[in-house]
Amino acid sequence: MPQDQPTGPLAGVRVIEAGQLLAGPFAGQLMGDLGADVVKVEPPGVGDPMRQWGREKPHGHSLWWPIVARNKRSVTLNLREEAGQELFLRLVEHADVVVENFRPGTLERWNLGYERLKERNPGIILVRVSGYGQTGPYSERAGYGSIGEAMGGLRYITGEPDRPPSRTGLSIGDSLAATHATVGTLAALLHRERTGEGQIVDSAIYEAVLAMTESLVTEWDVAGYQRERTGPILPNVAPSNVYPTADGHTILIAANQDSVFGRLADLMGEPEWKQLPSYATHGARGANQEELDQRIADWTAKHDADALLQLLHEGGVPAGRIYRAEDMLEDPHYEAREAIVRVPHEAFGTLAMPNVVPRLSGTPGSVRWVGPKLGEHNDEVYGGLLGLGADEIAELSGAGVI
Q1: How far apart are CA 175 and CA 154, in angstroms?
Q2: CA dihedral sign of residues 232, 236, 240, 243
Q3: Domain locations in the chain?
Q4: Exposure check for the chain: N or C terminus, fewer CB within 10 A?
Q5: Which residues are marked as active site?
């Protein structure tokens, strides 16, 4: 497995990742993608449950684990044992950031709370991702991403209006909390560079979801307007919908801005629509959304998808197919920008996975290796970083500490 030297903007930053499942590990993935040395701490014997997660597991291998644990070094460590806690503190002495997503209070029960970490490393940044945050009456509740999506307002407005609230096909709540946690970590690192002070980064899943809900709360607070489930459209934003084609496909067209709608009207051979009181303005098109969508659908249904897309692209109207994985792997734009990268894997040869985002021109991140085997880097970290001898490592292993 290649252990290439990181070249991203976080090269030289060491992260101890003590979380499991998704929110904490995804934050660790983002930091590792940007060049950080992420040392993932896992329970001996079983490891992170993410090693077993995923809808497809060819030959018993999770296809999720190689992605969420990429660029990380794996060590085993029993944090419930006093000897394990001491070893963790020794790792903290060599770290810049600790990431954890246990239920609030867990680290404190293990005598590994922020104050203890700070004693060993005054500049340490403790990143805490949880369902409800570290404070407040709900803080000690178990909180998965789906619960945060519901409490943060996303579930209620997702789906068709005549059906119960739906969910996206992704663990979006966990991923949003991890992304916000990473943004907070970068800000905390900058603050420490200026002052030498570490701090706690507290990222709650429900708040990360809430942060993405635009003016949802303000609309209710000021106008008593409650957003509802609206399927593929946003009310009063038209035209912006999926439309049928003659060859049985659907094409997404987003032409709700006045100038863009004018271009669409010209392409449709209906230039007079630009002056019609019912279509001339954004508000008017929103008030006549259903009628307008039907007229556009009648037009798109006369064209094959490829020809329609070429016409729309040439006319400066935003439009596109609704992609599946196979479309992404075949798309020339994906290929040209290397949006999907293939990484060596000992069981599969290579694995296709999303590349690093965002792109930095001077210090780009990279995917250097896939998720490691459990405890693969015990000798490298405990021996090389902490200076433990082979006998000490063997003794700790025999005692179930590592």
Answers
A1: 14
A2: positive
A3: 14-212+343-398, 240-323
A4: N
A5: 174
